[in-house]
Write a structure and sequence with these properties.
With about 575 residues, this protein is mainly alpha-helical. It is built from 28 helices and 2 strands. A two-stranded antiparallel sheet has the order 1-2. β1 and β2 form a beta hairpin. α7 packs across α24 and α17 runs antiparallel to α18. The radius of gyration is 26 Å and the shape is globular. The N and C termini lie far apart (about 55 Å). The N terminus is likely disordered.
């Protein structure tokens, strides 16, 4: 009995010890940034400004106390003589009041403390816990207190969080390049990676997946209204770079004939036809309809992503998580920042078409196939550039299926036949668009990426422009990109759906390395980020260090994604 009690006491002390080390690690990081006054660019009130990291809080006293506590713990666990260096550094700090000496003493004590505990799981658990608490404070300020115009002490945390986001956004270009390289190379160099059906067969969660889906739908609606709250936007500024252009075009759409002749409408007539119908049914003006169009598009994007991934993976939890990563990822934040309304609507049509195609293949249902053709064919009238990206991928999939047709089983023949029908319907839509509409069709839209070619290889500035400069740096959602990269490695290429998504990633990355930063961003924007992030999230849950702390890790992901969403839409910071 005494032996068990001793084990419990030791485990308890180790957890406290690990928590102190984690807190000290976090404080040391902040103190390093504050000491060296790291300079970085940040978007403030819609403009890029340069500023230096300034903590605004003196951490020297709590950090010194933390070091002293660690020294006491270490004296009880190891020979005291090995820690004289830390004591000398502490004495030097008090004598010289040097921030550099304090940081050096902190780093040495952290390193020596980690050598004592050896088991890093409690330390990692504590780091994630601290990150959750810190981000929860920033999220509370941004999502609730800022709209109520309440300036609490949490505003300091939200300001520091904003600075950290832009500091770590410097990793975005490198991770974007990694994403492209992995998409191009993983089927060649990593042919035996974990299959997605293995990855999601145990995909579970607490509660029901429909609750997560419902939460994501509501979140999408809230995201469309949040930027217009008085506490967030007291100046009543419009949101979105392209909003004025959409309003101007919509006001000129008086009838079907005028829609065809619009400057933008000729390329995307379906969108302005929808606006024209809504205007006639509701008697609302063009400004109101365009301004609140994300109130419709955001939930539709969530639902279409859920439907597509559900048919892709046949797992409701995976589909629900993909919906959450979609609404809290860059497809919503960038979509609203730049007001890519037709691009967002194009993704709704695309995911719906792919979802109906996969469902039609599984059930042999002709009506579902017709729906897939209707949504797929409509895409060229909504956003021809997204049409090109996926039409080329489906053509390549159709070619590979046709080559191996003699070896395919009966149900794979259905896949080939249904895919051919979808491609035929999309080709017919492209022909109609090309002949009867003077704007960009799928074929003519190819001139855009052709004009953006920068040459063989990747120009670093184009990566910087894509992930850090364009859209206020919102593409640099570092953790989401890491999950997407992991998700790429869980894709298998044997099934029809696996071939389709891998081909999309392969062709997208192939074009990615040739074009400029603006086109790079549009290519990345159109990938099925929610699906890949959901696969990456499940893959991380299988890691031994994460497996035992799944609830905390999941909370960390949810809080960090929500913070990214509301931080990105808060135009007052």
């Amino acid at each position: 009995m005494g032996y068990d009690k001793k084990i419990i006491e030791n485990a308890y002390i180790k957890n406290i010890f690990s928590l102190i080390i984690a807190i000290q690690t976090f404080f040391t990081l902040l103190l390093i940034l504050d000491l060296f006054k790291l300079t970085f660019n940040i978007v403030s009130d819609g403009f890029w400004v340069s500023r230096s990291f300034h903590l605004g809080v003196d951490l020297s006293i709590p950090l010194t106390l933390s070091i002293l506590i660690l020294i006491v713990f270490m004296f009880f666990n190891k020979t005291p003589s090995s820690y004289f260096s830390i004591i000398l550094l502490e004495v030097a700090y008090f004598a010289l009041r040097s921030g550099f000496i304090l940081i050096l003493a902190s780093l040495i004590s952290i390193f020596m403390s980690l050598k004592i505990i050896r088991d890093l799981k409690p330390y990692i658990y504590s780091l994630i816990l601290i990150s959750c608490l810190y981000q929860a404070g920033a999220l509370l300020q941004i999502s609730l207190l800022d709209p109520l115009s309440i300036n609490s002490p949490l505003s300091i945390i939200s300001r520091v969080d904003l600075d950290l986001f832009y500091i770590f956004s410097h990793l975005g270009p490198g991770l974007g390049l990694l994403l492209a390289v992995c998409s191009l190379s993983f089927p060649i160099f990593f042919p035996k990676m974990l299959k997605n059906e293995d990855c999601v067969k145990s995909y579970t969660g607490i509660g029901k997946p429909v609750l997560l889906l419902f939460f994501s739908i509501i979140l999408g609606a809230l995201a469309s209204l949040y930027p217009y709250l008085n506490g967030v936007n007291p100046w009543n500024n419009i949101l979105g770079v392209d909003l004025v252009g959409y309003i101007d075009e919509a006001e000129r759409a008086e009838n079907i004939q005028s829609i065809v002749s619009l400057d933008i409408g000729r390329s995307r007539p379906l969108f302005f036809l929808i606006v024209f119908v809504i205007k006639g049914l509701t008697k609302l003006d063009s400004f109101t309809i365009i301004k609140f169009m994300p109130l419709i598009l955001n939930p539709l994007l969530v639902v279409s992503e859920f439907f597509f991934v559900l048919e892709f993976l046949n797992n409701r939890w995976a589909a629900s998580w993909s919906a959450f990563f979609t609404v809290s990822g860059f497809q919503v934040t960038v979509g609203m920042f730049a007001y890519y309304l037709t691009n967002m609507a194009g993704l709704v049509l695309l995911f719906s078409s792919l979802g109906f195609l996969l469902k039609a293949v599984k059930e042999g249902n002709k009506i579902l196939l017709i729906l897939a053709c209707v949504f797929g064919g409509s895409l060229v009238f909504m956003h021809p550039w997204t049409f090109d990206q996926y039409f080329a991928s489906l053509l390549l999939v159709g070619f590979t299926v046709a080559v191996s047709l003699c070896r395919l089983k009966i149900y794979l023949r259905r896949e080939a036949k249904y895919l051919l029908i979808l491609l035929a319907s999309m080709s017919a839509s492209e022909a109609v668009k090309f002949i009867f509409f003077q704007g960009s069709s799928g074929v003519s839209a190819l001139t855009t990426p052709a004009s953006g070619i920068i040459g063989l290889g990747v120009e670093w500035y184009s990566l910087e422009y894509c992930f850090r400069i364009l859209y206020g740096g919102l593409m640099s959602n570092i953790f989401l990109i890491l999950l997407i990269v992991l998700g790429i490695f869980t894709l298998e290429r044997e099934s029809f759906q696996g071939k389709t998504i891998w081909t999309v990633l392969f062709l997208t990355s192939l074009v990615f390395v040739f074009v400029d930063g603006s086109l790079k961003s549009r290519l990345v924007y159109n990938i099925p980020a929610g699906l890949l992030a959901a696969l990456g999230y499940e893959y991380t849950l299988k890691l031994p260090v994460i497996r035992d702390m799944k609830p905390l890790y999941t909370n960390f992901i949810v809080i960090s994604q929500l913070l990214y969403l509301f931080r990105s839409l808060n135009i007052s910071i």
